Amino acid sequence: MVTAVLERRPGAFEQLIARHQALVWHLVQRMVQQPEDARELCQDVFLRVHDCLGQYRFESSLATWIGRIAFSIAARHLQKKKLPLVSASDEDGEGSLFDQIGDGFDLEAASLDEELMQHLGEAIEQLPAMQRTLVTLFHLEELGIGDIAQITGLPIGTVKNYLFRARHRLRQTLENTLGAPA
């Protein structure tokens, strides 16, 4: 596909966009949370992909490379608007035991109930931008920890730590909202 786009074959870039637009939209929208900004930033992502595709070195999957561009563009947008990417409590836990243990929370099983799913979506939107993004990449886009680390530029342990904290916050929010352990 990369070769086809670089050779300017008709429809090749449109195929590339169609294949990766869900990933880009999920990542950007979860980070910036403003639909108008997200649409504009998604366009910026694919413009950058088009302009820089010749620099793609096949060292990671194309999705990971595009995800990295999307993450960078969304992170810069948040910086320009002076919005935090991570919360202060996330910064304090770097390298803690949290990245070595699982929390036992099965997000997939929790999503089976439609009402719970609605509450879960609302709870995800309340997470700090980085946690929203990591939850989206891991649970919705089903990317591996290594791919997420490449996309975000974070160490693997930090990705695990943030995911643990995000699931913990989600569980607390759901327990408070529903009045029972989630």
Q: What would a concise description of this structure say?
A:
The protein has 182 residues and is an all-alpha fold. The chain contains ten helices and no strands. 70% of the residues lie in helices and 0% in strands.
Query: At the third CATH level, what is the topology name of the largest domain?
Result: Arc Repressor Mutant, subunit A
Number of extended strands: 0
Q: If helices are DSSP runs of H or I spanning 4 or more residues, what is the number of helices?
A: 10
Give the name of the CATH architecture of the largest domain.
Answer: Orthogonal Bundle
Q: Strand share of the residues?
A: under 5%
Provide the helix percentage.
over 70%
Topology readout:
Layout lengths: L1 H5 L5 H21 L2 H18 L9 H19 L7 H5 L14 H4 L3 H13 L2 H12 L4 H8 L3 H23 L4
Helix pairs in contact: 2-3, 2-4, 2-8, 3-4, 4-9, 7-10, 8-10, 9-10
Can you offer a commentary on this structure?
The chain has 182 residues and is mostly helical. The chain folds into 2 domains: 79 residues, RNA polymerase sigma factor, region 2, helix turn helix motif (Rna Polymerase Sigma Factor, Chain: A, Orthogonal Bundle); 91 residues, Winged helix-like DNA-binding domain superfamily/Winged helix DNA-binding domain (Arc Repressor Mutant, subunit A, Orthogonal Bundle).
From the structure above, extract its key features:
mainly alpha; single chain; 10 helices; Rna Polymerase Sigma Factor, Chain: A; 182 residues; 2 domains; 70% helix; Arc Repressor Mutant, subunit A
